[in-house]
Amino acid sequence: MKLECIIIDDHHLFNEGLALILKQSETFLVLEQIYDSRQAYVKCTQNKADLILIDYNMPYLNGLEVVKQLRSLTYSPKIVIISTYADHREIEQFEELGVNGYFSKTTHPICW
User: Fold this and answer.
1) Nearest-5° angle of CA 55, CA 57, CA 59?
2) What is the pLDDT of residues 92-103, one digit of tens each?
3) pTM, entire model
4) Domain ranges across the chain
5) Separation of alpha carbons 79 and 73, rounded Å
6) Which of 20, 111, 39 is nearest to 54 (CA)?
7) Which superfamily does CATH assign the domain made up of 3-111 to?
8) pLDDT-based confidence at residue 110 (cuts at 50, 70, 90)
9) How far apart are CA 18 and CA 22, in angstroms?
């Protein structure tokens, strides 16, 4: 059984590229790709994924704001922040919100 996931990232190229990598994997099933952070809560309510991958730096709502919204869901998905950069203070904020992980956008796809 595949791990159902949702990708939330406003950069279409990255979002599509990550989805392609995950779709080629035997481990993941991409349920939804979200490009506008304002739609994240509603779409995550409609598609109850096991894993939600969220870009940290997005217009409208940043990744931390999205995580705060998602913590009120009636189910408890694993949440992983993806970002090009994050300093120590930001990573501490992720931990305070109960984020399950963080990875850099510079991570090589072979790691998946």
Assistant:
1) 110
2) 888 898 999 988
3) 0.91
4) 3-111
5) 12
6) 39
7) Response regulator (3.40.50.2300)
8) low
9) 6
- Comparing C-alpha atoms, which of 101, 100, 37 is closest to residue 69? 37
Tokens 């305070």, residue located: 96
Q: Are 84 and 57 in contact (CB under 8 A)?
A: yes
| Helix extents (H) in 47-100 | 63-70, 88-96
**Whole-angstrom distance, CA of residue 24 vs CA of residue 41:** 26
Contacts of 51 (CB under 8 A, 6+ apart): 3, 4, 5, 6, 28, 77, 78, 79, 80
